[in-house]
Design brief:
This is YD repeat-containing protein. InterPro entries: YD. Keywords: Signal. The protein is mainly β. The protein is built from two helices and 16 strands. It has one domain (about 30-235): Porin (Beta Barrel). It has helices at about 1-10, 175-180, and strands at about 30-40, 45-50, 55-60, 65-70, 75-85, 90-100, 105-110, 115-120, 125-130, 135-145, 150-155, 155-165, 190-200, 205-210, 220-225, 230-235. A 16-stranded antiparallel barrel has the order 1-2-3-4-5-6-7-8-9-10-11-12-13-14-15-16. The protein is globular.
């Protein structure tokens, strides 16, 4: 869960300059409030999302883990508090968001010395270096097209995505939505295909089909993995 929240927290503010306008009519804004995943064995996993207007202020899951987001007076995400389990121990720690001179996210710093550093490359890609408490770095390179992450490169592994043209569940979320883009579920549109290509092994793919509501937001997603596993995701909204 912590890694997922790191992904959620990583691109919430990476592309802040492209984020939704906070001055929009928030009372009529469609926001996702709950996501439920159901697996083939019948088990489920739930995430609940809480807002102040259209700013995400908290994510909480069915495992009892959560992260809250704190903004300054200008709407910039500056800090957070995460709660996650390490074995049976519930850990609570602070998260700080650091910006460069161009007001772009340069680092996310966690209480346990984990930190993510970001480099904005001239070709439009973003490099993310993940450092653990021992200083070991794992590097990811994100490629964007039409506000979607279309490729993630990690060493010899390249994962590519294809998208539809409908609304993502997080389409209207202010600022933190930008951070979600490192996790393909939370792009501008909805992923229809994921291809995992490892140069040292065979490739694997997943396909996604959707049912949409009248506003073109997904209410159900069916994922079929390369192994034939089926995962159902349901989306619930504030209106």
């Amino acid at each position: 869960m912590k890694k997922l929240f790191a992904l959620l927290s990583a691109f919430t503010v990476v592309l802040t300059s492209c984020s939704s306008d906070d001055s929009s009519n928030e009372s009529s804004t469609i926001l996702v409030t709950k996501i439920i995943e159901t697996y083939e064995d019948g088990s489920t996993y739930t995430e609940n999302f809480y807002y102040n207007g259209n700013k995400l202020i908290k994510v909480e899951d069915s495992d009892g883990e959560s992260e809250t987001f704190v903004y300054d007076s200008n709407g910039k995400l500056i800090s957070g508090i995460e709660k996650y389990y390490d074995g049976s121990n519930l850990i609570t720690g602070n998260v700080n968001y650091v910006y460069n001179a161009q007001n772009k996210l340069s680092s996310i710093e966690y209480h346990d010395n984990l930190h993510f550093d970001y480099t904005y490359n001239s070709n439009g890609t973003i490099t993310e270096d993940n450092y653990d408490s021992n200083g070991f770095a794992d590097t990811f390179i994100y490629t964007f097209l039409n506000n979607n992450v279309v490729a993630i490169e990690e060493s010899s592994i390249i994962t590519t995505y294809q998208f539809d043209t409908k609304n993502s569940p997080f389409m209207n979320v202010y600022s933190p939505y930008e951070l979600f883009r490192s996790y393909f579920d939370y792009d501008y549109n909805n992923a229809t295909n994921k291809l995992y290509n490892n140069s040292t092994a065979d490739s694997r793919s997943s396909t996604y089909t959707y049912i949409y509501n009248s506003d073109n937001f997904p209410i159900k997603r069916t994922e079929t993995t390369g192994d034939g596993e089926i995962i159902i995701t349901e989306y619930f909204y504030n209106n």
